[in-house]
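# nightly structure sweep
# worker-07 picked up a monomer target from the shared queue
# config: single-sequence mode, recycle default, output format = structure tokens
# input follows
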Amino acid sequence: MKSRILIYGVDHYVGALASRVAAGRGVAHIGAGRDIAPVAQHATSMAGGAKAGVLVEPRIFTPGDAHRIAGQLDDVGVVVNAARLAEGDFNSLLIACLATGTHFIDLSADRATIAALGARDEPAKQAGVMLIAGAGFDFAAIDALAARLAYILPGARAITLAVKRGLLLGDEARALIAAMRAPGETVKNGQPVPAKPAERSLDIDFDAGPEKA
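# output follows
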């Protein structure tokens, strides 16, 4: 039975952070990515900072060829994806996971990721594989706050949560710029419907005066 954990994307900030947290809690795993030097540097840095006996094994592969990726997952029970992948690369990684019976957890919660996993629901069931999106903390924190407010305000009919982000990482900024060129979506009555950029706005006070969101 395969039981090893592979964290993909340790050559970037979020993946490296997830790897450090796992090692700090005594979880041995594979730290993987596409760029040799950053992956090797991360594994070397972890050797001195992890708990005694916790191994972070470096592994390098580039998503794109599902058959080649499958060869990297022979001993892996769970892939945790922390990398922002192009659609083709993401689909290849999913196909490899299904082919090798490897569970898949993605930190992203964008609609494209959720749709890609949902489209493979039946093959995943047949393969006995779990496909999970939205495991990152940004959405989990919002959900936790909403659940808390629903508990302490049982009579409320609706809730609006506004989140002020810090500076975007390079990959996040590029993805945002690309998304602004494409048609958007919003959710009404539980269903996604087309939306134009900034067609709705709110004035929110984040403790420093109103700001337009």
